TrEMBL record:
GO molecular function: DNA binding
Segment forming the signal sequence: none
Ranges for region Disordered: 122-151
Name this protein carries in UniProt: Single-stranded DNA-binding protein
Record-linked PROSITE patterns: SSB (PS50935)
Gene that encodes it: ssb
Amino acid sequence: MSFGETPITVIGNLTADPELKFTEGGAALAKFTIAATPRTYDKNSGQWKDGTATFFRCAAWRQLAEHAADSLTKGSRVVAHGRIRQHDWKTDQGENRSMLVMEVDEIGASVRFTTVTINAKRPAQSAPAAGNDAWNTDASPSNQGSDEPPF
Protein backbone atom coordinates (compact mmCIF):
# COMPACT_ATOMS: atom_id res chain seq x y z
CA MET A 1 0.00 0.00 0.00
CA SER A 2 1.29 3.46 -0.82
CA PHE A 3 1.27 6.57 1.30
CA GLY A 4 -2.00 8.48 1.07
CA GLU A 5 -4.20 5.54 0.07
CA THR A 6 -7.38 4.90 2.00
CA PRO A 7 -7.23 1.44 3.61
CA ILE A 8 -10.47 -0.37 4.38
CA THR A 9 -11.58 -3.69 5.83
CA VAL A 10 -15.09 -4.89 5.02
CA ILE A 11 -16.96 -7.83 6.54
CA GLY A 12 -20.09 -8.94 4.75
CA ASN A 13 -21.66 -11.29 2.22
CA LEU A 14 -21.10 -11.59 -1.53
CA THR A 15 -24.20 -10.54 -3.45
CA ALA A 16 -23.32 -12.80 -6.43
CA ASP A 17 -20.58 -15.18 -7.56
CA PRO A 18 -17.36 -13.32 -8.42
CA GLU A 19 -17.16 -12.48 -12.14
CA LEU A 20 -13.77 -13.55 -13.49
CA LYS A 21 -12.40 -12.10 -16.71
CA PHE A 22 -8.99 -11.53 -18.23
CA THR A 23 -7.42 -8.38 -19.66
CA GLU A 24 -5.89 -8.31 -23.12
CA GLY A 25 -2.52 -8.70 -21.40
CA GLY A 26 -3.72 -11.86 -19.62
CA ALA A 27 -4.15 -10.44 -16.10
CA ALA A 28 -7.05 -11.99 -14.19
CA LEU A 29 -9.69 -9.63 -12.75
CA ALA A 30 -12.48 -10.70 -10.40
CA LYS A 31 -15.33 -8.27 -9.84
CA PHE A 32 -17.79 -8.75 -6.99
CA THR A 33 -19.91 -6.85 -4.50
CA ILE A 34 -19.86 -7.24 -0.72
CA ALA A 35 -22.99 -6.26 1.23
CA ALA A 36 -22.26 -5.20 4.80
CA THR A 37 -25.36 -5.00 7.00
CA PRO A 38 -25.10 -3.74 10.58
CA ARG A 39 -27.18 -5.52 13.21
CA THR A 40 -28.26 -4.04 16.52
CA TYR A 41 -29.95 -5.61 19.49
CA ASP A 42 -33.25 -3.99 20.48
CA LYS A 43 -33.52 -4.33 24.25
CA ASN A 44 -37.23 -3.45 24.21
CA SER A 45 -38.25 -6.23 21.83
CA GLY A 46 -35.41 -8.60 22.72
CA GLN A 47 -34.63 -9.15 19.02
CA TRP A 48 -31.86 -8.39 16.58
CA LYS A 49 -32.65 -5.85 13.86
CA ASP A 50 -30.89 -5.38 10.54
CA GLY A 51 -29.77 -1.87 9.62
CA THR A 52 -29.32 -0.44 6.14
CA ALA A 53 -26.94 -2.46 3.98
CA THR A 54 -23.91 -0.80 2.40
CA PHE A 55 -22.71 -2.28 -0.88
CA PHE A 56 -19.00 -2.25 -1.72
CA ARG A 57 -18.04 -2.83 -5.35
CA CYS A 58 -14.74 -4.74 -5.33
CA ALA A 59 -11.96 -5.72 -7.73
CA ALA A 60 -9.28 -8.35 -7.13
CA TRP A 61 -6.39 -8.90 -9.51
CA ARG A 62 -4.20 -11.71 -10.82
CA GLN A 63 -3.80 -14.81 -8.64
CA LEU A 64 -6.03 -13.39 -5.91
CA ALA A 65 -8.77 -12.90 -8.53
CA GLU A 66 -8.53 -16.51 -9.67
CA HIS A 67 -8.53 -17.85 -6.11
CA ALA A 68 -11.52 -15.72 -5.14
CA ALA A 69 -13.48 -16.88 -8.19
CA ASP A 70 -12.62 -20.53 -7.45
CA SER A 71 -13.34 -20.32 -3.71
CA LEU A 72 -16.20 -17.87 -3.09
CA THR A 73 -19.84 -17.93 -4.13
CA LYS A 74 -22.96 -15.83 -3.70
CA GLY A 75 -23.78 -15.51 -0.01
CA SER A 76 -20.24 -16.31 1.18
CA ARG A 77 -19.41 -14.37 4.32
CA VAL A 78 -16.02 -12.76 3.78
CA VAL A 79 -13.45 -10.50 5.39
CA ALA A 80 -11.80 -8.32 2.75
CA HIS A 81 -8.99 -5.82 3.15
CA GLY A 82 -7.81 -3.36 0.54
CA ARG A 83 -7.99 0.28 -0.45
CA ILE A 84 -10.54 2.65 -1.89
CA ARG A 85 -9.94 3.91 -5.41
CA GLN A 86 -11.99 6.33 -7.48
CA HIS A 87 -12.70 5.40 -11.08
CA ASP A 88 -13.90 7.98 -13.61
CA TRP A 89 -15.32 7.45 -17.14
CA LYS A 90 -17.57 9.06 -19.75
CA THR A 91 -20.85 7.69 -21.10
CA ASP A 92 -21.78 7.58 -24.79
CA GLN A 93 -23.64 10.85 -24.17
CA GLY A 94 -20.46 12.51 -22.85
CA GLU A 95 -21.62 12.53 -19.23
CA ASN A 96 -18.92 12.16 -16.60
CA ARG A 97 -19.38 9.24 -14.22
CA SER A 98 -17.47 8.28 -11.12
CA MET A 99 -17.57 5.52 -8.55
CA LEU A 100 -15.56 4.30 -5.60
CA VAL A 101 -14.21 0.77 -5.81
CA MET A 102 -12.45 -1.32 -3.20
CA GLU A 103 -9.27 -2.78 -4.69
CA VAL A 104 -8.91 -5.96 -2.63
CA ASP A 105 -5.47 -7.03 -1.39
CA GLU A 106 -6.64 -9.89 0.86
CA ILE A 107 -9.95 -11.77 1.11
CA GLY A 108 -11.03 -14.85 2.98
CA ALA A 109 -14.06 -16.66 4.25
CA SER A 110 -15.29 -15.64 7.69
CA VAL A 111 -15.58 -18.54 10.14
CA ARG A 112 -17.79 -16.68 12.60
CA PHE A 113 -21.00 -18.45 11.51
CA THR A 114 -19.65 -21.46 9.55
CA THR A 115 -16.63 -23.66 9.03
CA VAL A 116 -14.36 -23.84 5.99
CA THR A 117 -11.74 -26.27 4.74
CA ILE A 118 -8.40 -24.76 3.77
CA ASN A 119 -6.44 -26.20 0.86
CA ALA A 120 -2.89 -26.14 2.25
CA LYS A 121 -1.22 -26.43 -1.16
CA ARG A 122 0.80 -23.27 -1.74
CA PRO A 123 0.85 -22.18 -5.38
CA ALA A 124 4.01 -20.81 -6.95
CA GLN A 125 4.44 -17.07 -6.46
CA SER A 126 4.22 -14.86 -9.51
CA ALA A 127 5.40 -11.27 -9.63
CA PRO A 128 3.09 -8.63 -11.12
CA ALA A 129 4.22 -7.09 -14.37
CA ALA A 130 6.25 -3.93 -13.83
CA GLY A 131 4.66 -0.65 -14.80
CA ASN A 132 1.09 -1.94 -15.15
CA ASP A 133 -1.65 0.36 -13.92
CA ALA A 134 -4.30 -2.00 -12.58
CA TRP A 135 -7.14 0.40 -13.40
CA ASN A 136 -6.22 0.82 -17.09
CA THR A 137 -6.51 -2.83 -18.01
CA ASP A 138 -9.60 -2.99 -20.17
CA ALA A 139 -9.60 -0.38 -22.88
CA SER A 140 -11.68 -2.55 -25.19
CA PRO A 141 -14.25 -0.76 -27.38
CA SER A 142 -17.07 -2.61 -25.61
CA ASN A 143 -16.43 -0.60 -22.45
CA GLN A 144 -15.68 2.77 -24.04
CA GLY A 145 -18.56 5.23 -23.64
CA SER A 146 -20.59 2.82 -21.55
CA ASP A 147 -22.62 3.71 -18.48
CA GLU A 148 -20.82 0.87 -16.74
CA PRO A 149 -17.21 1.40 -15.58
CA PRO A 150 -14.61 -0.63 -17.51
CA PHE A 151 -13.62 -2.99 -14.70
